[in-house]
Amino acid sequence: MRITHAAHHHIIAFAVALAVGGGAAAADTATAQTRLPTGSVIFFHPDGTGANHWSAARMYFAGPDSHLNWDRLPQIAPYRGHMLNNLIGTSNGGATTHAFGYRVDGLGSFGKNGQGDSAVFIKGLSGYPGSLMREAANAGIPVGLVNDGHIGEPGTGVFLAEVGNRDDWQEITRQMIQGRPGVTDTPPWVILGGGEADTRPAGTALVHRNHNEERKQPLNAQQSLRGDALDLELDWNDNGSGDLSNDPARRDDWIVVKTRAEFEALKTALAAQADYAPHVLGLFAYQDTFNDRNEEDLIARGKVTKDPVNHVGPRDAPVPAPPGFRSKASRLILWGDVPGQAGHNPPTFTEMTAVAIDILDRAARHAGAAGDGRFFLVAEQEANDNFGNNDNAIGLLQALADTDRAIGSARAYVAQHPRTLILTAADSDAGGLQVTAPYRNAVVPEAGEVNATNLRFAVNPASGSADIANLADGREGRGQGGEAPGGTRMFLSEPDALGQTMEFGITWVGTGDYAGAILSRADGLNAQLLREQFSTGFDNIDVYRLMHLTLFGQLLDDPVDTKAVPR
Fold first, then answer.
1. Pick from 268, 406, 266, 289: which is nearest to 345 by CA?
2. How far apart are CA 171 and CA 194, in angstroms?
3. Burial, 431: exposed, middle or buried (Cβ in 10 Å; 0-12, 13-18, 19+)?
4. Average of pLDDT values for 377-404?
């Protein structure tokens, strides 16, 4: 059911009844809007993930009859993510819709409607001249962003930057840190992710190296990609008290952290000082913290660790791990640089999200009447999308496990702070992942897993001609160079309700983004609206509407038949 203007009044009356114990249905709209419950918002954007991705992760890490943290988010609705001019959502167009509340040009929009010189600045659905995050920050609500990719990836960058080209990494990064041109923006409280390549003056030597040949730059290049003299890290520091040490032990109030050691020092300071809430810019990679190539390519490049105990990147299992859990640690280096480099073992998405929630919670409690104890966090696991777009099954599964742990951390926070909404949405389905199993008894005895080298599935059989074979993806790719003699091994599920483990492989539609079967889930404050009002169709524009309602107490009218309003 779409929430039209009439239904909008019904929800307001319903919310007032909740607030005052009934009898307020006749209250006028203006009065009712002031009584809608408001609080914090944690928006998870597990980019590129549909129900099929979550199903595979559940089988692998919890078992087909068990549950992930994602499953335990109690409210659920189908997500519809088409764009103004395309039936398939894009990262930049979908993020713009989430941030502004209008469907936009899917191909080019990044905080504007359209691309290039013809891109148009737009208002948010509320009428504010900017995104929901800019509206919240400028209203005194502490805001933060987490991304295991570049901080300027659309799922996070769009909430703070407005450009005509999604590849304008330098300007996107500049706006996220310095604010929009001609506007006095309140800076975000926390930004954590990758993207050091765009924060230092032209030619400056960086902490991190380009070990993945990102942005078509030479392998292992270690110089800033900025074309100007801006030092955005210094600008971040200069917002504070004048202490440029970046030392959390000294209670530096605006700090930049780049390595695992610096991140751990920040966590130690937070644990030791309950009222410490620094503004933090984290830059843990040249571009992305993950290595988004297919498995065979990673093996060929030596992105393999000989010591699985020294695991790099996200840990094994979702939280909590099922009894008797088998280690799923991959020997492939899916996150971070090799040992000995500054970018080795960067903070995981879960770790960054937990630190961001901790800091924003402290900041919100000290924000005064304007913030009213609220904060707004957007957390995107970009690795889900990028591994999916590279048909890297083990990378995608490990990324989803990391997302699931982060959701678990947020659920634990909501249990103690019920004035908080957790909302999840993905704009598209990366790679079109499907779980496949051999045409035989797939129950595996304790002896071990089955070799996947010859696991092929027919595609489009034609009379009188050979079938096109779709080779299944296993633990280390599609069959060559893997850890088993002659190829790779299939995945092995955790036990089902009968204690049986089963083998499976992953097949892909391709390397693009697809419409998919995407589900939004929610928990906490106002989450019931996902079921009671949006259950038959939760649009990308409704992501904005539900978050705006929770932050500001007003359910905005449905703009499903309205184009973005220029400003």
1. 289
2. 15
3. buried
4. 96
Q: CA-CA distance, 427 to 50, in Å (whole number)?
A: 9
Q: How far apart are CA 470 and CA 131, in angstroms?
A: 43
Would you say the pTM of this structure is higher than 0.85? yes
User: Where is 233: in which H helix or E strand?
Assistant: helix 232-238
Q: Which of the two residues, 400 and 447, has the higher pLDDT score?
A: 400
Q: Which of 416, 418, 281 is CA-nearest to residue 359?
A: 281
Q: pLDDT value at position 441?
A: 73
Cβ 9 vs Cβ 342: under 8 Å = no
- Give the pLDDT band (50/70/90) at residue 442: confident
496 or 439: which carries more pLDDT confidence? 496
What pLDDT is stored for residue 120 in this prediction?
97
Domains of the chain, each with CATH number or no CATH: 1-29 (no CATH), 37-433+514-552 (3.40.720.10), 443-507 (no CATH)
Q: Could you tell me if 519 and 87 are in contact, meaning their C-beta atoms sit under 8 angstroms apart? A: no
pLDDT band for position 253 (cuts 50, 70, 90): very high
Distance CA 396, CA 419 (A): 32
> Following DSSP, what letter does each residue of 131-169 receive, concatenated?
-HHHHHHHTT--EEEEEEEETTSHHHHTTT--BS-TT-H
Residue found by looking up tokens 């800033």 in the block: 224
At residue 518's C-alpha, the angle toward residues 513 and 519, to 5°, is 155
What average pLDDT score do residues 542-552 get?
A: 97
Instruction: Give the relative orientation of helices 349-365 and 393-416 as an angle to the nearest 10 degrees.
Output: 20
pLDDT for position 12: 45
Average pLDDT over residues 364-389: 92
Distance CA 42, CA 357 (A): 8
Of 259, 257, 262, 255, nearest to 276 by C-alpha is 255
pLDDT of residue 560: 85
Instruction: Please name the helix (run of DSSP H) or strand (run of DSSP E) that holds residue 392, with its range, or none.
Output: none
The residue length of the chain stands at 567
The answer to whether the CB of 441 falls within 8 A of the CB of 457 is: no
Q: How far apart are CA 75 and CA 521, in angstroms?
A: 5
